[in-house]
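Why show two proteins at once? Because comparison is the fastest way to build intuition. When a single record is shown, students tend to memorize it. When two are placed side by side, the eye starts asking what differs. So, the first record is below.
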Amino acid sequence: MATDRTTYPIRRPEHGVDLRSTVGLALDIAAVLARHGYPPVVTGADLLHPHQALFRLIYQETTR
């Protein structure tokens, strides 16, 4: 890569909701993990953890 600038994390949306952050996105990531040999998602809690991890990966912490 030619640059040292990072793309992630990005700013959280000002209105508080990013319509791209869906259960479908979490399911897609869970499917990729399973294809790479990780255990499949079998419960709602299993899906919640990757979804939360994605949120932390994608968005900056907010300062209050």
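Second record. Ask yourself what differs from the first in the token line.
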Amino acid sequence: MRRLRRRFVRRGAPIEARPGSAAARDVGRAAGPGPCPEGVRNREGTSAMAKATLTISSRNYSSWCLRGWLLCKFAGLDFDVVKVALDDASARAELLLLSPSFLTPCLTYEGVDVWDTLAIAEFLNEALPAAGLLPADRAARSHCRSICGEMHSGFANLRAALPMNLKAKHPGFKVWAGAQSDIDRICVIWREQLAASGGPFLFGARSMADAMYAPVCTRFATYDVALDATCAAYRDRVLALPEMREWTAAALQEPDEVEELEVEF
């Protein structure tokens, strides 16, 4: 029987401005009413002239930040990352699903602030249409939006029972009925779409949908979820993407630990 520990441990992470906090507003008054901070000095990245920034929290735990980051990478966007420390109460609440809304990831692009992962996806599709985040065919495009929306608003049992944790490995993990029904539905989506498109990704070429379902691939690997051959191959294909390897390598270097998300048996 597993349980979740209920204590948050801070391990010396630098405290940085949180989007929407007083500190963030003091750092970047010129940013306007949006929640993304401007002028935070501790940016990650080497491009001093990048015209976009993406504000994220934890690479290890935040599935939404991974989605936003992948969308920017898939779009070919030149951007720097602004990292929010987990010492911040609002960032911690988002990771523990205790926040009424999610303000990370947050993209700032040419003075425009965009938060919520689906909003970021649609914004990038408008700003950089040649990137092909959505399929060209209208029917495929509509289906892509539908399964992205399903990922965005559904699968609550999976999120609660199998929180994203790239550092952890739980072989033989017991998946209960609520989460299993979510897993079954996700596998149906994957099998149907891979069959319809011919692969290797959900809509042939990688798209918005692959970014949305990428964190699920990490959960399936972390918790040793049993999959059929088609779904296991897709999981492995996504995890092998250079962008996923880059994100995971950075996550493994993070010192922060949220003990509520560390599963014990």
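One difference worth noting in the second protein: Residues 1-33, 37-42, 91-101 have pLDDT under 50 and may be disordered.
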